[in-house]
Design a protein that fits this description.
This protein has 2 domains: about 35 residues; about 170 residues, Phosphoglycerate mutase-like (Rossmann fold, 3-Layer(aba) Sandwich). Helices cover about 40% and strands about 20% of the residues. Helix 2 packs parallel to helix 3 and helix 4 crosses helix 5. A 7-stranded mixed beta sheet has the order 4-3-2-5-1-6-7, with helices on both faces. It is of the alpha/beta class.
């Protein structure tokens, strides 16, 4: 009996250490993946229908209606932050949702001389946070969002040229190129990615009439 215990003791220790090693090698990476690298969902839309003209134009009546529809589309998703820039049409598109979810509108600063939210009609009345001026490209905005809002759902309102660029930055070559015609205001893109080992996914949808 004593000899049997002497033999089984070392075997038990070896098995115990083997279980510890397996836990460290397999379980710890899975825990790290889930805790420190959660998926982030980014909803991207072009601004809603705008009035005719160039420069810092406002939303049209159809655009204001579409911006209200965006509340129903995105509200149930648990949006944690809403982003736009210093063009009236993007901020006006984002404002109803930001007001509905009770979050300030995070505004990307624009160096263009015509940009600014002071003269928008309807005015931008929701609370605003302004991004640092060095975040001034679609790629830098996506990097900021992934670093700041890991594991959350974010809405970004952009333009027909910047939304495809942001999708490209999220996909890192995984998505086919996106094009948005100047007459299209109803495109909604739902991109899911992670900051590390991204494994991005993209859903294309429409909202409003």
């Amino acid at each position: 009996m004593a000899n049997s215990l002497e033999i089984d003791g070392p075997r038990f220790k070896r098995r115990f250490y083997a279980v510890i090693i397996v836990a460290v090698v397999i379980v710890f990476p899975i825990w790290w993946w889930c805790w420190f690298n959660p998926p982030t969902t980014i909803l991207l839309v072009r601004h809603a229908d705008k009035m005719d003209g160039d420069g810092n134009v406002n939303l049209s009546d159809d655009g204001k209606t579409r911006a209200e529809v965006l509340i129903d589309v995105a509200n149930e998703a648990g949006v944690a932050a809403v982003y736009a820039n210093q063009w009236c049409r993007t901020a006006q598109t984002a404002q109803p949702l930001a007001d509905s979810v009770g979050h300030p509108l995070t505004v990307e600063q624009v160096s263009h001389a015509d940009a600014g939210l002071g003269g928008c009609s309807p005015p931008i009345t929701v609370a605003m946070n302004r991004l640092p001026p060095d975040i001034d490209t679609p790629a830098e905005l996506i990097d900021h969002v992934l670093a700041t809002h890991a594991g959350q759902v974010i809405l970004i309102v952009g333009h027909s040229d910047t939304v495809p660029e942001m999708i490209e930055e999220i996909g890192q070559g995984a998505f086919a190129p996106i094009q948005i015609d100047h007459s299209e205001y109803d495109r909604l893109f739902v991109a899911t990615t992670r900051r590390y080992f991204p494994l991005p996914k993209l859903i294309k949808a429409q909202y409003g009439n």
